[in-house]
Amino acid sequence: MKQANKLWMLIIVLIIVIQSCVVPPYTQKSENRYLPDKYLASNVSGDTLNSADIRWDKFFSDTTLVKLVEIALQNNQELNILTQEIRIAQNDVRFRKAQYLPFLGLMAGAALDKPGRYTFNGAVEENVLLTEDKKFPDPFSNLMLGVNFSWEIDIWKKLRNSKKAAMYKYLATREGRNFMQTRLVAEVAETYYELLALDNELEITQNYVDILNNAFEIVKQEKAAARTTELAVKRFEAEVLKNKSKIYYIRQQIVQKENQLNYLLGHFPQPIQRNSKLFMDIVPQQVLNGIPSQLLRNRPDIRMAEMELMATRMEVKSSRAEFYPSLRMDGIGGFNAYNAVYLFQSPASIIWGIAGELINPLINRNALKANYFSAIAQQNKAAYHFEQKVINAYTEVSNQIANVQNLQSAFELKKQQVDALNQSIDISVNLFKNARADYMEVLLTQRDALEAKYELVETKFQQMQAMINLYRALGGGWK
Fold first, then answer.
1. Alpha-carbon distance 426 to 306, whole Å?
2. pLDDT at site 116
3. What sign for the dihedral angle of Cα 80, 81, 84, 89?
4. Which of 38, 196, 217, 378 would you label with 29, given CA atoms 20 to 30 Å apart?
5. Which of 164, 171, 150 lies closest to 97 in space, CA to CA?
6. How far is the C-alpha of 399 from the C-alpha of 291, rounded, in Å?
7. What does the alpha-carbon distance between residue 401 and residue 291 come to, in Å, rounded to a whole number?
């Protein structure tokens, strides 16, 4: 009968232990890595040449811009903050690694104890008839010197998977810094070219004011000769004043853009040395877009999302292992004596001990389930985030490919428009002198020419911006 009861007790214990090791089922999402064979806006299929593999200092031909980017990569505060984040993540990997290794520590201790007569130790001494020289010291001292260790044996790889999760997070922070670098390189280049464009707009406006002044003098002469009215004189004077005031607005934009560029460089506001004369002659660098699948390798934000996804997978495995028994070993060894004279006498003063415990969660598993389900939800979230980054990268590249192509055509047509309007200015002035055109035709022709020149400069800047954005969208600027 007793044997049967013991058997039933053993069976019940085994059922409880097995039941406690059961992990709740839950479906995890797998990420979709599918990408089309080519970009929608591209006419090239299967060409693997990719400008993202070109270093940024080789991609940009302007030496002034290259120097500015070099300064930004050294001084930019946001980039340096991310560098510190990388170091923090690296130290977290070391911390997680130390958790599954044995812990060994040196220990030393000293204590005094004065047992009362009616305590256990006092009663023992009183009842055991000891001679005077063999009695316990009063007070009783306790000296110890030795080592202790503890070790949670990572049977189910819970701690190792936790360390791998930290490692993937560390890699994600590195990719995050690379992504920030691509953005920084692009932003410095874009701000620099915008500054050159503003310089050209300022020069165009100043030249336009000079042209207006000449026309204004002609109108005044025509007025003196009674060949035109005072209205024409005032309209030209108003136009001159309007464009003179516009010069100050452009100068303010230049100051703000210089300060923005200095901020990216990590500098206080100061003048930016540059040569704006050659801006309109710059030919945008040809950007080779390669094939979409290369985005998985070149885009730091996709690589970052992939590392974050891998980290969540390791965290799911680590939280899953919480349902299984954990084995822990503890031990101690060293010298122990009540008198310093006897502390290092061997083997009488030597003590040691070792213990092991197997712990398995039985009750209150809701906390483990909640942690497990949260880890799976984080993994699903990371998978969706990864897919979002892939789709966004493909869309960005497709948009910029079309943008580069359309802006090239627009620039050529806009250039022809400016040439035609420049010729029309001379024609309108000659017609006005010969009384074959009124002053409004001259004024409107000059306005149209000014607006066309502004648009030509803006189109050139948009061309450079599209080139930079395509280079960044392909993943260039961090290698």
1. 62
2. 74
3. negative
4. 38
5. 164
6. 15
7. 12
| 311 and 380 in a common domain | yes
Q: Is the dihedral of CA 299, 300, 305, 311 positive or negative?
A: positive
pLDDT at residue number 174: 95
Handedness of CA 72, 76, 80, 81 (dihedral sign): negative
The three-state secondary structure class of 198 is helix
Structural domain ending residue among the three candidates 341, 359, 377: 359
3-state secondary structure of 404: helix
- Rounded CA-CA distance 261/75 in Å is 12
227 and 346 in a single domain? The answer is: no
Q: Is 204 in the same domain as 345?
A: no
Claim to verify: residue 59 and residue 126 sit in the same structural domain:
no
Q: Which residues lie below 8 Å from residue 468, measured CB to CB, with a gap of 6+? A: 186, 189, 190, 193
Residues 70 and 201 in one domain: yes
Say how far apart CA 265 and CA 262 lie, in whole Å.
5
Do both 161 and 149 map to the same domain?
Answer: no
**Residue 125 near residue 321 (C-beta atoms within 8 A):** no
pTM of the model: 0.83
Four-residue CA torsion sign, 229, 234, 239, 243: positive
How far is 332 from 354, CA to CA, in rounded Å?
Answer: 6
Task: Assign 26 to helix, strand or coil.
Answer: coil
Say which residue the tokens 């089922």 belong to. Answer: 25
CA distance 386 to 416: 46
Whether residue 156 contacts residue 75, with contact meaning beta carbons closer than 8 Å, is answered with no
Low-confidence ranges of the chain (pLDDT < 70): 1-31, 41-46, 117, 120-138, 362-364, 435, 437, 439
pLDDT of amino acid 368: 85
* Residue 400 Cα distances to 100, 173, 396, 417, 462, angstroms: 49, 27, 6, 25, 11
Cβ within 8 Å of residue 296, ≥6 positions away: 33, 35, 302, 303, 306, 390
Q: What is d(CA 81, CA 118) in angstroms, rounded to the nearest whole number?
A: 66
At residue 33, what are phi and psi to the nearest 5 degrees? -105, 15
How far, in Å, CA of 182 to CA of 479, rounded?
Answer: 9
- For residue 74 the two structure tokens come to 């050294």
Domain limits at 92? 26-100+157-325+364-473
**CATH number for position 116:** 2.20.200.10
Looking at residue 205, which CATH number applies to its domain? 1.20.1600.10
